Amino acid sequence: MKRTKVIDALNSTEYGKDILVKGWVRSHRSSKAVDFIALNDGSTIKNIQLVVDPKTIDEADLKSITTGACIGCKGVLVESQGKGQTVEVQSKEIVIYGLCPNDYPMQKKGQSFEYMRQYAHMRLRTNTFGAVFRIRHNMAIAIHKYFHEHGFYYFNTPLITASDAEGAGEMFQVTTLDLDRIAKEGKVDYSKDFFGKKTNLTVSGQLEGELGATALGAIYTFGPTFRAENSNTPRHLAEFWMIEPEIAFMNKDELMDLEEDFIKYCVRWALENCQDDLEFLNKMIDKTLIETLQSVIKEDFVRLPYTEGIKILEQAVKEGHKFENPVTGWGMDLNSEHERFLVEQHFKRPVIMTDYPSEIKAFYMKKNPDGKTMQGTDVLFPRIGEIIGGSVREENYQKLLDEIEHRHMKESTYEWYLDTRKYGSCPHAGFGLGFERLILFITGMQNIRDVIPFPRTPKNAEF
């Protein structure tokens, strides 16, 4: 008999039909007359109830079926008399695939997320993480669907690179050299390395993505990126996924339109396609989750120049608002709490902040005529702060070269990038969205380590 997924069984009205379901036991309640087993196979947040007559199965086998055990059940699909379910399976035969001893780490309810991070390989089987990763899958589908429908091409950029797109230098080195021998000799000859030069894991696919945009018109990347940033915060990972569209002939206003439309599409997709999982997370994680998601798609995003944003923060301080990180005035880099104040308390809706001081933004951003600010377009969200970082790119060869020299960056490393400005340069723009920050927002989870299956953070590369 072919297996029926739990989600399909729950949605079926073929009462009286023999079916086979397989999965992992969520709970097992026993009595002399009847046993109830809640079974889940990961296809839905909801369990299907197996009604088992103890006479139909060996007593020792029945007792051995504990939380976490993997079983199959052949039985009859019937209408359920219990609350919270429409169907159940009257068991005829149970097959045990894998028993689960008492030291199974996910047995107890109410475990902390910190505890579950120690068992990232096992936490996947819990209701919460099943919901999170089904939503993560749906967001990936939504992203590809959005860009495909809007004429973008999926463009694969390298994970190993010799350039630092952000200019921050916090990169993981890639090498085949014998580090123990080098440590003894005290010198590194990178010409002997695999690529013949010093290489790193990418912090962004943007620079290579710009090459694609100047050939294909509109592209997007969607893949892993790496930051060797020693940050143990709920918002940072060493390995995370980025979505980075780049578009030729796009100006700042059009870029902001794209950012807003794209992220609203993703939120709308979640509300329409992940209803059961969102309802569970709304109940268990964040009681205002669905309301927050709905508010994002209803409201127009505020478009706020950085200079105006600083004035609002300074006024808030004058009126007695306390920030952990001081508001030091124009030129400061905003902290997450500043961004969240603007979004959650002042405007009460998402904000696109524009025209940042050039000194606190990346070298590739186009400067405004004032010479002091750049055409950045960062989207700030409730609970998250910055969720998108975007800008118009500097298309003028000499201006871009001057900026590279001003920041003491190595021109030779960026010769290929400068070629896009030397040969048929065009105005263009793009943004980067941290995938995990999007999932954080849509799931209501509080820590970014809980929205990626196997988090990579300082001193942690398990599994």
Structure description:
The protein is of the alpha+beta class. 33% of the residues lie in helices and 24% in strands. The chain has 15 helices and 16 strands. An 8-stranded mixed β-sheet has the order 6-10-11-16-15-14-13-12, with helices on both faces. A 5-stranded mixed beta barrel has the order 1-2-3-5-4. A 3-stranded antiparallel β-sheet has the order 7-9-8, with no helix packed on it. Strand 2 and strand 3 (48-52) form a beta hairpin. Helix 5 packs across helix 8 (252-273), helix 5 crosses helix 9 (275-284) and helix 8 (252-273) runs antiparallel to helix 10 (289-298). The longest helix has 23 residues, at 127-149.
Total helix count? 15
Largest sheet, in brief, is:
8 strands, mixed
Structural class: alpha+beta
Shape: elongated
* Mean pLDDT over the full residue set: 94
Descriptive terms for the model:
5-stranded mixed β-barrel; 33% helix; alpha+beta; 463 residues; 8-stranded mixed beta sheet; 16 strands
Task: Give the SSE layout.
Blueprint: H1 6-10, E1 18-29, E2 35-40, E3 48-52, H2 59-64, E4 70-79, E5 87-98, H3 113-117, H4 120-123, H5 127-149, E6 153-154, E7 160-161, E8 173-174, H6 179-185, E9 199-201, H7 206-216, E10 218-226, E11 239-248, H8 252-273, H9 275-284, H10 289-298, E12 302-305, H11 306-318, H12 336-347, E13 351-357, E14 373-381, E15 385-393, H13 397-406, H14 415-422, E16 428-434, H15 435-443
Parallel strand pairs: 3-5, 6-10, 12-13
Antiparallel strand pairs: 1-2, 1-4, 2-3, 4-5, 7-9, 8-9, 10-11, 11-16, 13-14, 14-15, 15-16
Helix pairs in contact: 5-8, 5-9, 8-10
